[in-house]
Amino acid sequence: MMLDCAVIGGGPAGLNASLVLGRSRRATVLFDNEQPRNAVTQEAHGFMTRDGINPGELRRLAREELGKYPDVHIKKQKVTRVWKHDGIFSMETEEGDLYTAKKVIVATGLKERLPEIPHIHQFYGTSLFSCPFCDGWELRDRPLAVIAENSGALHMTKVVYNWSRDLVVCTNGKQTLSGEEKRLLEEKGVTVYEQPIAALTGDQGDLKQISFNDGTTISRDGGFVITELEQAASIGEGLGCEFNNQGAIKTDGIGRTSVDGVFACGDASIIAPSQLIIAAAEGSKAAIGVNAALVEENF
Ligand SMILES: Cc1cc2nc3c(=O)[nH]c(=O)nc-3n(C[C@H](O)[C@H](O)[C@H](O)COP(=O)(O)OP(=O)(O)OC[C@H]3O[C@@H](n4cnc5c(N)ncnc54)[C@H](O)[C@@H]3O)c2cc1C
């Protein structure tokens, strides 16, 4: 059967896109291999009516809602390949199943790489986070560290300072701050540690201490780390979509990419600010874009 739309990725972007497509009576399959970017965390914040919800529960509720719409089917499968021929998209899943669709929405999100610091993964998502807007409130007024190996260090520190003034910056051996920036931070009472970090230690995800290679140790309750981000899937690239200089798939106001019939939404098309509610809204826009294109083609 020819689908109206294949939605690839079942995070908030793909789920909301599928909801709007289902309500628009569009034959849709939502593919998801259940590896969301926020899988490490237990609580998601800043989504109205759902502040503090477990991210898995948010997805479960959204999938349950899709059950009301008979034109939407969910496949817990990874899409490995998508190609376009004569204006129609074909896709193959890891299991070797083949599907065809008139339109494709890429909602595959991002994956992140943490700095190479011993034990950092034990704390990421519990007391170390990447987005102050998501988790700053929970860490307010506590002794925090910003761990930043690149030129975003000063900006991240300024932002986190809004939540806690008991703040240090760790650049893990990198010279990312200029003399002037270090003086500015010093004036604000923010100590800069430029020596390499030997290890993070703590208990059940709660950070307690940062040890440096030179033997220095400091006590910290948590903090924020700048992570490297990249597309979680190469589907947009494989279809020939253009990317912006941040690595996001370029889209217009209704999710259209540079490839006719391919739409993108969520973190895959907006690297920052990345938020659940923004991803969901972008999913809605992309679905409206798909619907508009189908209306024009079929009316
Ligand atoms: C530690 C952490 C904490 C966060 N906390 C918050 C918070 O409190 N509040 C907030 O608003 N935001 C938070 N975020 C950001 C938020 O998680 C993202 O902005 C949001 O998940 C993006 O939604 P998405 O649908 O674009 O991508 P995702 O949620 O990452 O979903 C993408 C989905 O696509 C699937 N997928 C990828 N490739 C394929 C493929 N080839 N085939 C099939 N499926 C595929 C993945 O398995 C995944 O399920 C946090 C992020 C992190 C890392």
From TrEMBL:
Transmembrane segments: none annotated. Its cofactor is FAD. Homodimer. The keyword Oxidoreductase applies. Keywords: Flavoprotein, Oxidoreductase. GO terms for molecular function: oxidoreductase activity. The keyword Oxidoreductase applies. InterPro entries: FAD/NAD-bd_sf (IPR036188), FAD/NAD-binding_dom (IPR023753), Ferredoxin-NADP_redctase_2 (IPR050097). This is Thioredoxin reductase. Residues 4-283 form the FAD/NAD(P)-binding domain.
